[in-house]
Amino acid sequence: MEESLKEKLFNKKESGWNNISQNDKEEIYSFSDGYIKFLNNSKTEREAVQTAKQIAEANGFKDISTFSSLKPGDKVYFINREKSMYLAIIGTEKLENGIQIVGAHVDSPRLDLKPNPLYEDSEFVYFKTHYYGGIKKYQWTTIPLSIHGVVVKSNGEKITVNIGEDENDPIFVITDLLPHLAQDQMEKKLKNAIDGEDLNVLLGNIPYNDEKASEKVKLNILNILNQKYNITEVDFLSSELEIVPAFKARSLGFDASMVASYGQDDRVCAYTSLSAMMTLNNVKTTAVCILSDKEEIGSMGNTGMESHMFDYFISELLNKTNENKPNLLDKVFCYSKMLSADVDAGFDPIYGSVSDKTNAAFLGHGIGLNKYTGARGKSGASDANAEYVAWVRNILEKNNIKYQISELGKVDVGGGGTIAYILANKGVDVIDCGVPVLSMHAPYEVTSKYDIYSAYKTYKAFWEA
Ligand code: MN
Ligand code: MN
Hints:
Distance between the termini: 37 Å
Low-confidence stretches: none
Mean pLDDT: 97
Bound molecules: manganese (II) ion
Strand content: 15-25%
Largest sheet: 9 strands, mixed
Radius of gyration: 24 Å
Number of strands: 22
Shape: globular
Strand order of the largest sheet: 1-2-3-13-4-14-20-16-18
Number of helices: 12
């Protein structure tokens, strides 16, 4: 009697793996295999957009510039400067009655090269770096690193670089001090132990065979780069080269229940939303998927969500469906709904003291929603209306999708933000909705395969609602 009353009244919080059917488990594992493959091909925002474009085109999406007019069922994409992408499927309803958006980001914390990166010291040659996004600097020493990006010569020729991923490629590394001589370093605060100016990537050690030259090792490396990529030192000035971990994404644990990889914030939401969009046909409300750039450094610039590029894309949809009239864009946004698809901090028992266990997201408990983000007194928060949270809950409950609504850490401990507020500021109803992660922003992050699949099901059900 008492048990059934509890059953009726309590919000039951339990692992989604409990009593899971063999069939469901197989579906989860096979979906995760595709995700792991995506991660290994998409280590930067440019690569993620390139992979997403291939997936979209294989599923019948075409560049919006190839359409002079749009009708229900048309599948389009728009790529902004190779770094961010918007996709849409035109619905049978008019756009002015609102659209349904899922928005993730494809940039991740990393080390960028400085404009003048190359130098020699004591017969070693290095790249100087400038870190991008919130990193714990000590985590980036003594791990295998790869180099990805582009070098654009002043004549416009673009050279794509991807070295350190293939088994036959060399890798690169940032050295650290041996413990025998690290007495002073070990006394420092963790955040000061490694200096930003010391995150220099080791590139080579052989001097060029020329008696008269100085900086012979640098000369030798430049000679190798010149032969391999046909570039000279000045070409680094117009390059975007990113240093990322050379680790491969892998299944984690004896039970293979988790995924360990670089860049899961936020490519886990990017892949699951993109995959969900690929399954859609004949939607009622126009479905839009955002893969944005620069989220990790504040969404600024012409590829970040703060730019007007997204408004431009929606205006193009209005123009090409022949619906547009003055100020209609504002109306579209006011009647639109969005899931801000970004990762959440998963509860880690080793560091349990930073979380309120009653309001934390647990790995394996399904998709994680944050009604609000922000820090301390909800500073900078985008706070979803209760009415909208109820609407989203209804979709999840109708579709039997396990979900959890949580906060990122204890009230006074810290906080964070996503792109949610940017769309909310336009008038869209937005809630944060993504996958809980352990070791977020580290070179190797951890997620649960159960939650990855829940995210995919959530985004699909949202667009179909
Ligand atoms: Mn994120
Ligand atoms: Mn992040």
